[in-house]
Write a structure and sequence with these properties.
Length: about 350
């Protein structure tokens, strides 16, 4: 089978206690003026990084937001200019990473700002060149090498404070990356293998995380699965599922990870006949006969968000969302017109069980 495999180089430091290596990694990159971007949930870890950086810390941003609102991105870029930053260090979930990416892209004409990312969720954005910014109810996304962190520090201990519900939603988000990468056109054998391996790690770890959020072994496996998810998404194109979630987030402000959780089983069910090989590997990784049913069962087991209605989507918005998704013409193994996307959204709005395979 023909394929094209292209990836940017990045350094990954993984292990419990790896947070202590951040200052050394900054020194390795030759940075003297760091702008630290940290979300409010990860403030204690940000404080530890700030203390370790000492005189290398030039400034700090403590405000982030889901889907990276454009005004926030512009203000953060101005802050980077004010403190003459030569490196961005993000500590937190996808919102912190996403803001760092927006700053790096905004500042590139004057000085390229590299990113060192310290993720505290399973978002996966830290391993990709994918960026997203929301303005006027529309989320724009794209790929740019300047948005790819050059170093990623994974410390499973930083995810212990993530509440079980958020852990479950974030894990389902990572699974969405693995699934769409697995059936992307021209996928390489490496991506196919990572898709199945990552799904298996998350499927085994997330129920354990839900049962015992402090268990480091399960947290480590979940974070390793998220790393593979981010890596896979970074080298494979996004498709229908991600486009649906981007429209829902940009136009209606739905929470990012929870939206992925609510939508994913229904897109997998829609694609099951068009991508039997990749989804068959996912089903096996989930320990299920069918990938869509396995995702629905896993979501139920771990208590992840299950319906768009509960996330605040007005029922009257379904037709508009479907039209916006179809207009974007996302890649998908199976053609998806207006009626098909509307059906996926209706099922996700209700959170109904996925239909059995034909």
């Amino acid at each position: 089978m023909p394929f094209v495999h292209e990836q940017a180089a990045s350094r990954v430091v993984f292990g419990t206690g790896a947070l202590e290596s951040v200052a050394g990694e900054v020194e390795r990159l030759g940075s003297a003026r760091v702008l630290l971007i940290c979300d409010r949930h990860s403030r204690p870890y940000g404080d530890a990084v700030a203390a370790a950086l000492g005189g290398r810390l030039a400034g700090r941003i403590g405000e982030t937001a889901t889907h990276v609102p454009a005004p926030l991105a512009r203000a953060a870029a101005e802050r980077a200019a004010e403190c003459d930053a030569d490196l961005l260090v993000s500590v937190g979930g996808g919102s912190a990473t996403g803001l760092a990416k927006a700053v790096a892209l905004h500042r590139r004409p004057e000085r390229r700002l590299r990113i060192l990312a310290v993720p505290t969720t399973y978002a996966g954005s830290e391993m990709t060149p994918v960026w997203g910014v929301t303005e006027d109810g529309r989320k724009r996304t794209g790929r740019d090498p300047a948005a790819q962190p050059v170093t990623v520090v994974y410390d499973p201990a930083l995810t212990v404070a993530l509440p079980p519900g958020l852990s479950a939603a974030s894990g389902m988000n990572a699974l969405a990356h693995l699934i769409e990468a697995g059936y992307a056109p021209g996928v390489s054998p490496l991506v196919a293998a990572a898709s199945a391996e990552g799904a298996g790690l998350l499927a085994r770890a997330l129920p354990e995380v839900a049962a015992d959020p402090t268990g480091l072994a399960a947290r480590e496996d979940a974070l390793r699965g998220a790393w593979l998810a981010g890596w896979a998404l970074g080298v494979a194109p996004m498709g229908l599922h991600h486009e649906i979630c981007h429209v829902l987030g940009g136009a209606y402000g739905l929470p990012h990870a929870a939206t992925h959780s609510a939508v994913l089983p229904y897109v997998a069910a829609y694609n099951r006949r068009a991508a039997p090989g990749p989804l068959g590997r996912i089903a096996a990784a989930l320990g299920a006969d069918d990938a869509a049913a396995g995702l629905w069962d896993l979501r139920t087991t771990v208590g992840a968000p299950a319906d768009l209605a509960g996330l605040g989507l007005p029922e009257s918005a379904i037709d508009r969302v479907a039209a916006l998704v179809v207009a974007a013409a996302p890649r998908n193994p199976r053609p998806a017109g207006l009626d098909a996307v509307r059906g996926i959204l209706r099922a996700a709005y209700d959170g109904r069980p996925v239909p059995a395979p034909d």
